[in-house]
Design goal:
The chain is an all-alpha fold. The protein contains 8 helices and no strands.
Length: about 200
């Protein structure tokens, strides 16, 4: 992504605002929006986020592989995971991948929401706050160390928003960012609710 291309312009990607949730989350649209969100970590501008990018892309691939193998049973995330579970596979790969991807999306959305809610706070503080409340409890000592390094490499707030083509002082930009974030939060909440209702999945 070039410095002149706005992340929220979505000229080369799908917005979470285009991902409906009411009748099941469509798998294709969700994966496209997730793939584009991963670019956000590229914008953060540090190789320290390589592990984060690799993990999220890996989970996206697990879901897409299942969709490719069983397109008729994968129109929505809910159908895809339910069908995979019904097959009684020893390892529900896509179901596990979606769970971890949703955790990564939750971490991202909470970091940005915290930052927008605290206009003078630097990104490193917001991302650390989010990590402590989301992913940290799921990580072992080694992974916690990797994230510690990555979070410390987070750019300054001003530089980050400039890179994604957003001026938080501009009401229109602020509205675009808020709408995108609200849509992401709604998708994450729906996935989390679905897993909460289906504890038989074993996660």
């Amino acid at each position: 992504m070039s410095s002149s291309e706005s992340f929220l312009g979505f000229s080369n990607g799908r917005s979470f605002a285009d991902v409906p949730v009411d009748d099941g989350i469509p798998t294709t649209e969700f994966l496209e929006a997730s793939e584009y969100l991963v670019k956000l970590f590229d914008i953060l501008g540090s190789t320290a986020f390589g592990a984060v990018i690799s993990d999220m892309n890996g989970n996206i691939k697990k879901i897409r592989d299942r969709q490719t193998a069983e397109p008729g049973k994968s129109s929505t995330l809910q159908l895809l995971t339910a069908q995979e579970f019904e097959e009684k596979k020893k390892k529900a790969t896509a179901t596990e991948g979606l769970l971890w991807l949703s955790r990564g999306l939750d971490f991202t959305s909470k970091a940005l929401r915290h930052n927008l809610s605290h206009p003078t706070e630097e990104l490193v503080t917001s991302f650390q706050h989010s990590y402590d409340g989301t992913l940290k409890k799921h990580h072992n000592f080694v992974v916690k160390g990797i994230f510690s390094v990555a979070l410390k490499a987070t750019p300054y707030r001003k530089d980050f928003y400039e890179k994604i083509g957003v001026s938080t002082a501009d009401p229109k930009d602020d509205e675009r960012l808020t709408n995108w974030l609200s849509s992401l939060e709604k998708v994450v909440s729906t996935i989390q609710g679905f897993y909460g209702e289906n504890k038989d999945f074993g996660f």
